[in-house]
Amino acid sequence: MGIQGTDVAKEASDIILTDDNFSSIVKALMWGRNVYDAIAKFLQFQLTVNFVAGVFSVTCAAAIQSVPLKAVQMLWVNLVMDSLASLALATEPPTEDLLKRKPYGRTKHIVSLTMMKNIVGQSIYQLAVLYGLSFGIESWMSVDDIVKYNDIGKLRDSSLHFTIIFNVFVIMTLFNEINARKLHNERNVFAGIQNNYIFIVIWVICLGGQILIVNFGGIIFSVKPLEWDHWMWSLFLGTGTLLWQQVIFTVPDSLVEKIVQKLCCCCYRTKDTKEDEIELVQEEKIVETAINEPVFESVPDKENEQISERTKTLWMIANKRIQTQLQFIKAILTVDDENRNTPNEVI
After folding, report:
1. What is the secondary structure of 211-278 as a DSSP string?
2. Which of 85-94, 123-132, 300-309 has the lowest mean pLDDT?
């Protein structure tokens, strides 16, 4: 207790309730989980954008010797992705639903299997759309495909073709920002969005900024104004990320775990398991060495020191195992006593 507690109790305690109210612990847990989830949401969003932009730029540079996403356009994407998106996702208010799920373990990876599934799934959709627009836009809309000319000069100049690719990529990123609000396979990605006014304002500002850049950016952003049908296609492909997210939710996490285990083999094991196995191997080596080399043999002083250290290590290992067994027995006895003291229910 921060008010009524003594100084000795405060120094010996791990948590101090400054207002002497136990409900503050619940609020602290709620806000702690909310901060953790905010970091995970931003990572889920940022990794998707980085992966899509990186893979698309590298492959296009190798295939057509030009990058549809120009440098100044990528600066705007980074502004949307880093600064504004982090502010929007970090201001999500905590809810009581955070207390209904199990807590995260100390060794749990911040990028969970569900997040990995969302990142890979959204990346597949966005890359498929971008590649389709890059190499087959004429089959989608009435736009001249400049890639077929194989002219580096045209590829590097401002064009309606590359402007549509840039616009669709940003619109898909904005709608995927809504998907990034959920981390645990929640179907309704819009749940609680009305309580986060900062998220709504930032999202509208980013969309308005994109409209201004495309229509009035000109030479600075290497864009050309789009017609209304181009904007309809951009919004249609952007909202497709919301529908595709529902498809991603149908994929069970157990299937993703099996795929990751097959791809990564033994590298996917947890850190604790690896440390336990290393410790077990070291213990086996020590025991095997102690058995093969007798302790009570008359040997020189230097070897006596090594033998005494080995004997001390064996004693510590045995003591550690005995303590673990005693703790296990004590826990069983405690549960047994609680069951005996609990009165039988009357049916």
Report:
1. HHHHHH-HHHHT--PPPHHHHHHHHHHHHHHHHHHHHHHTS-HHHHHHHHHHHHGGGGS-HHHHHHHH
2. 300-309
